[in-house]
Design brief:
single chain; two-stranded antiparallel sheet; alpha+beta; 7 strands
Length: 371
């Protein structure tokens, strides 16, 4: 019930506060709003509607505190992003700001209404090393993670700062093989648009058709059909921002990539929670073909999917047995640097033994559901 109450309040339904008539319900509501990452957005929505003062004091204070904290954090985020945009421009590197950060500046009334843990940027594969060098020169350090040509297509960089500054550098749109090449960096750059962050700072972001597809795909590829309201609100805003040509583009790409079912799932959830006619219009154009449900990408929608099932979907998406063998090898044997950084307490253990220990201890997790 709590996600439904949250969504109703975000839609502007009056009187939702009346059901929060005891401290336990109020606490559960606040916890749900925090889990769905909509406290700043809800505070702003209720203030605009004139209802905020009618909500229980404990709930109201939590929402207002979250909004103030996010607005303060945004000051540092904006500064860090503009510094990064200037640095990569000076190095002659084309960069796209993608996902949450692009939506925050493009679609939300205020960027602080769209919480995010990092700033996602995308470059062409040939520019990854140069961009990493720019980030290193700016004080960022790479966070150890498995690497390879197939297992990972992004690298997280962090920098000590009051804003907990983190940049997730992408050269493909997602890690899992069924999603990684649905749109290339060149595809995104070709139709990208300029966004002015302030008078002296601009960023390039995906066009809204591409942004909607990325939002639909990422929710499934990396979050296994998670129903966090913030992601669904993104889809609600994106659908409202598309004209007829943009809707046709989404439908055409979804059909070509056999991801109509994946896109329809996210949009159906957004429609259910936010009752948007714009989402319904887009859903009408999506051809949820029966064959889509057997595509490797659609396997990520299955509620009973285990990690091993998703690996099988990844293997099906790859074109050759050589690439499939490479993916399995990259999962089983990440780089020595990653192993030493991840298992710092085992520095004295020979590397082959460390790999064996990792494989044996991790085997059971492959038969668990990732959700």
């Amino acid at each position: 019930m709590l996600p439904n109450a949250l969504a109703a309040a975000l839609r502007g339904v009056p009187g939702v506060w009346a059901d929060l008539d005891d401290p336990v319900r109020q606490q559960h509501f606040v916890e749900a709003a925090s889990a769905h990452r909509v406290r700043p957005l809800l505070a702003w929505t209720l203030r605009r509607s004139g209802e905020l003062d009618r909500w229980p004091a404990a709930v109201r204070q939590s929402l207002v505190d979250a909004a103030r904290a996010e607005a303060a954090l945004e000051i540092a985020r904006h500064r860090d992003l503009c510094r990064l945009m200037h640095a990569v421009a000076s190095a002659g590197i084309d960069v796209l700001v993608v996902k949450g950060a692009s939506l925050a500046y493009d679609l939300y009334a205020e960027p602080w209404l769209r919480p995010r843990e990092d700033t996602d940027v995308m470059v062409r594969p040939e520019d990854v090393a140069r961009t990493g060098a720019v980030l290193a020169a700016a004080g960022y350090r790479a966070v150890p993670r498995p690497s390879g040509t197939l297992v990972a297509h992004q690298q997280l960089y962090v920098r000590s700062s009051p804003s907990r500054d983190a940049v997730d550098l992408h050269w493909k749109i997602a890690d899992p093989a069924p999603f990684a090449d649905l749109l290339s960096a060149d595809d995104l750059f070709r139709d990208a648009v300029d966004l002015h962050l302030d008078a002296s700072c601009r960023a390039r972001v995906p066009c809204r058709s591409h942004a909607l597809l990325l939002a639909c795909w990422h929710r499934v590829a990396h979050h296994h059909d998670g129903e966090r309201l913030l992601w669904l609100y993104d889809l609600h805003l994106l659908a409202a921002a598309l004209d007829d040509a943009g809707c046709r583009t989404v439908a055409e790409i979804a059909a070509r990539t056999r991801t109509s079912a994946v896109c329809a799932r996210g949009l159906t959830l957004a429609s259910r929670h936010f009752q948007s006619p714009h989402v319904a219009r887009l859903l009408d154009q999506l051809q949820d073909a029966p064959a889509d449900h057997e595509s490797p990408a659609s396997r990520y929608l299955r509620e009973d999917a285990r990690k091993v099932d998703l690996l099988l979907a990844d293997l099906r998406a790859l074109p050759t047995w050589t690439s499939r063998a490479r993916l399995v090898r990259e999962h089983l044997f990440p780089s020595a640097d990653y192993m030493r950084a991840t298992y710092e307490g085992s520095r004295g253990m020979p590397l082959p033994a460390l790999y064996a220990w990792r494989i044996v201890n991790g085997a059971r997790r492959w038969f668990q559901r990732p959700r």
